[in-house]
Give the backbone structure.
Amino acid sequence: MTGVEGFMYPNEVELQWSALIVLYPYITGLVAGAFILASLERVFKVAAVRPTYRLALLTALAFLLVAPLPLQLHLGHPERSFEMYLTPHRSSAMAMFGFVYLWYLMVVLVIEIWLDYRADIVRLSQTRRGLTGWIYRLLTLGSRNVSPESRRIDDRVGWAITVIGIPSAFLLHGYVGFIFGSVKANAWWSTPLMPIVFLFSAMVSGIAAVLLLYMGISWRQKRKVDMLCLDTIARYLFYVFLIDFSLEMLDLVHRIYEADESFRSLDFMVRTRLYTSQVIVQIYLGTVLPILLLAATQVLRLSERLRRGLYAAAGLLTLAGIFAMRWNVVIGGQLFSKSYLGYTSYKLEFATREGLLTTVFLMVLPLAILWGLLKLLPPWPEREAA
Amino acid sequence: MRNHVREAEHLIRLALVFLAGGAAFLLIRQAVVPPGFGVHGHYRAAALEENRLRPAVYAGQAACSDCHEEQVKQRAAGSHRGVACEACHGPLARHAADPSAAAPRPPDPVALCRRCHEADAAKPKNFPQVVAQDHSGGEACNSCHQPHRPKV
């Protein structure tokens, strides 16, 4: 059979989980990571990252809105996915995700953004005309009270929401790892470390995404980048990356030392079919190299220009590396036979429901939504006016 | 206290929006979840009755022997003795009840035989299997094998 090597059970030959299923943990990871960056400012009072607070929240919202789409496109009957809200099955992790998702979207993100922007929304509702004016008036919910006392209440409630939001973000992404980690039939996935590794890689990718977006938007709008903010974000990226890398290595060392019955098969897979995406892209280019670049910015005294260049390079490599990591988990987990005697291959289709085109579209869609959100809710109004 | 309520009025409005959303959800749920759901398990209780009322489409092995003695004898003598008539001919309850009402379509031998006999590493080793391409090169299987008693 073409693409098959050795022995595969008949139901393993064709991969059921496509590139869209790769996208899903990738996108939710960006959400969780961006939100955790935002909560740094809010809960841990890291004033330096203030300029990206709102941007991070809007990024999280834009990506969260798209997060379920890859799953729904993967389903033959997407409309049935809503049944998990109507008749949820309590023993199904996937069904419970619907509620985690809704909780995180509505209770955490939407409320936090609304509270933070309320003063701006009220101001805009009074100055803008036409359709946008209507949208802002709708968003005020009919209350124009922005007295200092009401803003103080907003601030306190917002803080409480963020405090709830951090475990929610952990839950959202830890859960995605759990979905894979709990598949006990699959030796590539089944490890209790999976949720934790997913979580830290989520933070890494989300922080890198906000870093890049902040630099990109500032460059586009010809604004000066707040270097202190950038340095701080990059430092956090570096730290979190170190933890993430150690966890992944811990997992690896543990697998090698334990060397259970799946090991030879998985080892062979990593050396052959997954070599480019796992060893080259994920580990060398996507993890070691950005860590080295970030380390260089920490130990050497470099000019602002050079630092910005290094941050941009590290951010891009990181995003590619984390994407490769999701790819290796999802696709890699389906390439080897559960008999450990054979391997199949995955061919990404082009213009089909789960093809490359759809994948690219779903990756661009959150950016388009973010663009709209940035227009509607400008994150830096004080600079807008200037 | 009154002052606090006034300053938090927008939050009360927000809470009302959420309450309205929750209420709408409950109403929709009430309207669309079918009655009887969850009585026996995670499905519609009425589905059991509906399935029971569906007409049977398979007549069963015994039904064929009344009229097709020849094939029944053939089959019983060969290695297909364990393969039900309707496994190859498809569901024939209507035909068995009234042969003139529904004449069975003859099965396509190549597709039919390959479905069970195409070589596949996942099948038990002692099950007779061939790589159809090498074995017959596209020639219809029944030009050499008698389907009801396949030993050549």
User: Anything to note?
Assistant: Residues 2-53 of chain B form one domain.
